[in-house]
Amino acid sequence: LFPDVTGNTSAVTWGHAAGQQEIAWLEAEAAKESSTAASLAGALLWILGRNAQLLHATTREAIVVESKHPCPPNERESRCFRHPGATKLLIDFDPRSEMNEQADWLQFSLDEACNQPVGPQDGSFTGKGPWLSFEVQGDTVWFFSRSDSVDGHWGWRFTVTAIYSST
Prior knowledge:
Layout: H1 11-17, H2 20-31, H3 36-55, E1 58-66, E2 75-82, E3 88-93, E4 98-99, E5 105-109, E6 124-125, E7 127-128, E8 134-137, E9 140-147, E10 157-165
Antiparallel strand pairs: 1-10, 2-9, 3-8, 3-10, 4-7, 5-6, 5-9
């Protein structure tokens, strides 16, 4: 069944050695009713699939952050998103996000002093969305918001998703 595997029967080796034909054969055998081969093929498919999941396991943890809608004037917010062990953080914006270009903005940075901006447009977002999503390598990002206009734009909403990879 796995001609490239000699003497090593670990699921990892089998998974790497198995080609399209072998997987198709296992699926066909697993589809047969009440045979030993079907049971064995089903078990092997499960083992290979589970092994692939474990090898490429990625855990996600998401937090949604948003302003009031509409965004009130004279609002300030700063916040640190720290997810120890995360390999990266994904920042995704709600397409409705909109702030006054002259007076309101969001800023993302790697530090609290905002000396290391991160993201498109040097990490600064204003005006009408949709705003570009971006990712931050590592487990920490700072967020700053300022709203000074009185014109009642929708405001902002974004999701910070921490990615924990096992590989």
